[in-house]
Amino acid sequence: MPTGLEQVSVVVPTIGRPSLDALLDALAGAAGPRPAALVLVDDRPSGPVLEPARAGLPPVRVVRSGGGGPARARNLGWRTARTPWTAFLDDDVVPDPDWYARLAEDLADLPDDVAGSQGRVRVPLPAHRRPTDWERGTAGLATSRWITADLAYRRSALAEVGGFDERFPRAFREDSDLALRVMDTGARLVVGRRRITHPVRPVDRRVSVRVQAGNADDVLMRRLHGPGWRERAAAPVGRRPQHLAVTGAGVAAVGLGLAGRPRAAALAALGWAAGTAEFAWARIAPGPRDPAEVATMALTSVAIPPLAVGHLVRGVVQHRRVTPWRGLPDLVLFDRDGTLVHDVPYNGDPDQVRPVDGARAALDALRARGVRTGLVTNQSGVGRCLLTRDQVDAVNARVEQLLGPFDTVQVCPHAPDDGCRCRKPAPGMVTDACAALGVQPARCVLIGDIAADVGAAEAAGAVGVLVPTPVTLPGEVRAAARRAATLTDAVDDVLAGSW
C-alpha cells in the first residue's frame, strides 16, 4: 500500500537550542503536503513550554521527557505520534525545501521487509580556510550509517524491538544500536533521496574532551552486539589503540619514577611525549593554524588519551552484565474492580467509584512515557440481569473521569456459564484490545488482582502481573509468575523494564 504523508509523523527531540528555529522555519516553508503531525519532545528537565507557533507547520504537539536523554525523548515521540511511520529529525538540521515531497517518495511502496529509510546528510564546511577538528568530526555525519539526524522508521519495527535503548545516555550509538536490532529481526534499512543540511554547531574548546564519554557506550555496543558490531554499523575504531599505548606509557613513567627507576621512567615518559605529540600534530596538521585552534589541539591532546581510557574502563565495569533491551510495553491493560477501584459487587452506581491509592499517579506515569492504557473488566451482572449495560458504561465513564482517559475499554457482559470468548480468563478482551490499537500481544501487559486476569493475559500471549488483594487466593499468589505488592509497584516495575 502506498504511504502518504498522512501516515507519517515527524518527531524532533530538542533541548531548546537556537538551531530549532531554523529547523521549524524550514519545515514551515517547505513545499508539498504536510505529515500528520509534528511532535516536539522537549528534553529539558525544566523551563518554559516551547511555543513553536509558525504558519505552515503540520499540526504540532509538544511533550516533555524530563531530561531523560535523546533515546528516551525519541521513544516518547514515536509512542506519542502513533502513525504507521515516524520520521526522526535532529533539532540542529535544516531540511531541503522539497523534503516533504522527497520523504513521501522515499516511503512510497516500500516492501514490507523494509523497516526504515535514511535521508542524505550534507555538512557545509568553510570555503575560506581549512576545517577545525570539530568541523571535520561533524563532516563525518555525511557518510555515517543509520543516524537519526534524518531517519524514518515503521512504528511496528520500533515496537517490535522496544524502541531506542535508553541505557545509551547521549546522542551517540543509540541510533546504531537501534538499527542493528531492527536488522536482527530480518528487516532491511534503505537510503532515500531526501536531503538535510547539518550545520556545524558552535561549541566551546572542551568539546573534544567531553565526547570521550562515548567510549563507555562503545563497550555497551560490544556487550549487546558482539565484537563484529563496528563492521555492521560502519563505526571505525579510531585512535583507541594509540590512546591505550600513550596512557600506558604515562602510567608507567609515573610508576617507574616512584619505584626509583629514573632511566626506565625517562624512557616511558619519552614514549608518552612522543605519542602525545604525534596525536596533537595529527589533529593540527589538517586544520587552521590560528593560535587558538592550535593551543586547543595541543592542550586537549594531552587530556584525551587518559580520559578515553578512563571512560573505557568505566564502561567495562558499568556494563559487565547486560541483557537485551526490551523497552516499555506498547499497552498496559488493567482489571477494574479491585485493581483500579475498590470492589463494589455488581456496582451500577458511579457515585460508589473509589480509586485505590496511587491509581491516578500510576496511570499518569504510563501516559507520560507514551504507553497506551486500557480497561478490561468482567461484568457478569449484566448477564445475570443485575445490571444494565448503560449502568456499566456509566461506572466506566466515572472511572475515566477520576483516573483519566483509556485508549481502549473492553467489557464482558456475559454470565459465567454463557461460554463466551471474552470473559477472563478467556483471552478475548485482551486480544480485542490489542487488535483495536494495532499492538502485538507480546508487547502488552495486563495488571489484575486474581488468577483470571493473569490467565487471560497468558492465554492471549501477553504478560500478566498479579497485585494481590484480600480476595486473592493464596494459591493464586503462589502460582503467579509476576506479582507486585501494590498497583504503584507493578507500574514502577513496568516502567523500569521488568515485565
From TrEMBL:
Residues 9-133 form the Glycosyltransferase 2-like domain. Its main location: cytoplasm. One of its GO terms (biological process) is carbohydrate metabolic process. Keywords: Carbohydrate metabolism, Cytoplasm, Hydrolase, Metal-binding. Pfam families: Glycos_transf_2, Hydrolase. It is found in: Cytoplasm. One of its GO terms (molecular function) is metal ion binding. The keyword RNA-binding does not apply. GO terms for cellular component: cytoplasm. PANTHER family: D-GLYCERO-BETA-D-MANNO-HEPTOSE-1,7-BISPHOSPHATE 7-PHOSPHATASE (PTHR42891). Belongs to the GmhB family. This is D,D-heptose 1,7-bisphosphate phosphatase.
